[in-house]
Design a protein that fits this description.
α4 runs parallel beside α5. This protein starts with a strand and ends with a strand. Helix content is about 25%, strand content about 30%. The protein has a 9-stranded mixed beta sheet, with helices on both faces. The longest helix has 17 residues.
Length: about 220
């Protein structure tokens, strides 16, 4: 199953429709997180379920959402975690095959950075998850991968450590190759690389890596 989580940040209707189109015949569920319900509705769709305390919508919109969508997880506004974290824990509990998160890369950098960290919860659970907007597709690598240039989201590839030092990084087929290098948390060594071959290989011996495929 594909689970699509839509948060309240900017979400182009065309992107949401493309994610669903790419799912093909696979089963999918569409979950709106707080104001993400409105993003889904703006795209002319309806969420299968809603999650949040709905403090990012008007009182009238909150009342309508909670009335209109019975499959819901209504959260207390006074809590230690964000609506997105609650949604990620819910998503992990459902054990989907894949997760796509939209609207999580917005204008609030505190929320954006927190959301990026939450991708680790999917990595720990062994669930394939990507965070996506019009210009970025981000996931966490837990092991070696091969990238096809024809499948890239954008021409630029950045690798950043999730936490601590990532050791033994080897890059093949890249403009800037590496051989058993170490990527430090406060280094820009892994930023803005490109594939020069049809296939690129990323290998590393220890740690977790953010893989960011980006375009201008």
């Amino acid at each position: 199953m594909l689970l699509i989580l839509v948060a309240g940040g900017p979400v182009e209707a065309s992107l949401l429709k493309k994610v669903i189109e790419d799912a093909g015949d696979a089963e999918f569920r569409l979950a709106g997180i707080d104001a993400g319900v409105l993003r889904i509705e703006e795209a002319g769709m309806r969420p299968d379920m809603v999650i949040g305390d709905f403090d990012s919508v008007s009182p009238a919109e909150k009342a309508r959402i909670l009335t209109e969508y019975p499959d819901q997880i209504a959260l207390d506004p006074v809590k230690d975690d964000t609506d997105m974290e609650a949604a990620v824990h819910y998503a992990v509990s459902q054990k989907p095959e894949r997760v796509v998160l939209l609207g999580a890369l917005g204008k609030r950098m505190d929320h954006t950075m927190t959301n990026l960290r939450l991708l680790s919860l999917f990595a720990e659970a062994g669930i394939s998850a990507v965070m996506q907007d019009e210009r970025n597709r981000i996931r966490i690598l837990t092991g070696n991968v091969r990238l096809l240039r024809s499948d890239l989201y954008g021409p630029y590839i950045s690798l950043l450590p999730v936490s601590g030092v990532v050791k033994g990084i080897t890059l093949r087929g890249f403009k800037y190759p590496l051989t058993r290098a170490a990527l430090e948390p406060f280094s820009s060594l892994g930023v803005s690389n490109e594939l020069t071959e049809a296939v690129g290989e990323i290998e590393f011996e220890e740690g977790l890596l953010y893989l960011m495929e980006t375009k201008d």
